[in-house]
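Re: weekly structure request thread

Next one in the queue (523 aa):
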Amino acid sequence: MVIDQFLLAAFLASLVGYALLYILRFKNENDRKTSASKVRNERVKNLINNGECRPENRSGTDVIIVGAGVAGAALAYTLGKDALRVRVIERDLTEPDRIVGELLQPGGYLKLLELGLEDCVEEIDAQRVFGYALFKDGRNTRLSYPLEKFNSDVSGRSFHNGRFIQRMRKKAASLSNVQMEQGTVTSLIEENGTIKGVQYKTKSGEELKACAPLTIVCDGCFSNLRRSLCNPKVEVQSCFVGLVLENCQLPFPNHGHVVLANPSPILFYPNSSTEVRCLVDVPGQKVPSIANGEMAKYLKTVVAPQVPPELHDAFISAIDQGSIRTMLNRSMPADPYPTPGALLMGDAFNMRHPLTGGGMTVALSDIVVLRDLLRPLQDMNDASALCKYLESFYTFPVASTINTLAGALYKVFCASPDQARKEMRDACFDYLALGGVCSTGPVGLLSGLNPRPLSFVLHFFAVAIYGVGRLLLPLPSPNRLWLGARLISGASAIIFPIIKAEGVRQMFFPATVPAYYRVPPVK
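Done, posted below.
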């Protein structure tokens, strides 16, 4: 098989890439830290300095959680179950209505099981998902999750995001040591460089303060608090246009469907027993206007001809009903400022393109890590020691792998006028269609069941080498050799900047980070 001839070359290419990135990482590390320190000193002026919270924690709260979305609600239940006194402040406790956050990968479901939250996908008409179907130019291939080693209940789940969140909020609030209230957190309370709590407005407009040894900010992608705790580099790559299709059957039941359309992918997946969610990706930050009918025209003339025939009529019907919604797709690598008394989590901490549906898996994985770090602690009132200890939270590579996969796959799946990018896109589809390890390996990464960064890099360059091999067989020519070189160069240009942004050391060599070996502080 062609792929066998090039796996070694892919491995060597990845090692060269690692070396180059490692050198660049250390070259820029000191400048980045100096810049980050200056930025944080400027931003700390935005924090409140008139708080009166004392280290002895008179408030009777161990942890304040800002936000009760997927991350906040799951974290509240997890910490509450471990006997911590938790106070959750959420801007709006009514059921959210979103067009994303509806697909939980099998790896995320395993984390739900580990946290004791698996019943939150029950009684919400959640649908089991067993893999993906990939469509391109009239061809299709099915990619199944590698679930053979797991219990029969383990699979992906798709559902209405709001129903899932309300189930988790209800479960968290059922614990007597978890207090959940509606309010808008306006700022963090800071004393001598340590976060002591938050200032917030209640639903009635009353301004109050809440104090605790640890404040965890989970206020989502629109976080107004993250600037004091990290260096946010938010990039908007595209927009999702969301529709709900009714009374239709997916070509592959209980599978997510990805159409490699022009100019960018289209997603379909069941989010209830009677509905199919459609997400049309539109590159850039601007989309056709919904109000004047340009969006409906775009969907019917550009997108509809590329939709699988089984879904075409339902797609047109959904457009005619007019329930079209849009959402910007943001990505942001994690770049935190270790801050005594505070921690970031969820989309407030880092984001990736939602194409791969990895956001909830990352959040739940991070909650498991944080829970295990906090369990040995007897006292959280030494903010400096706690901050130093919790730096190890940032050394686990699961999020980096899923983030890098999402960013790289989106760029490969988008159409391009560049011939080398076209070849890479074709090679990716055909590589996955080969089956065997060429399918189960990448899908294992996508599902969160095997979040190993080296495995991802090897498969990514295996796709590139596979594409080069197809160009050079049966007989190479100068033009094909040049196109093959451009394909490898283009693949490197896609993946290496993403890896650099995520952090080479944290992603591939976490054991070399001093924080990896931190032990719980002793009083």
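Confidence is low (pLDDT under 50) at residues 1-13, 15-51, 54-58. The first strand starts at residue 63 and ends at 66.
Next request, please.
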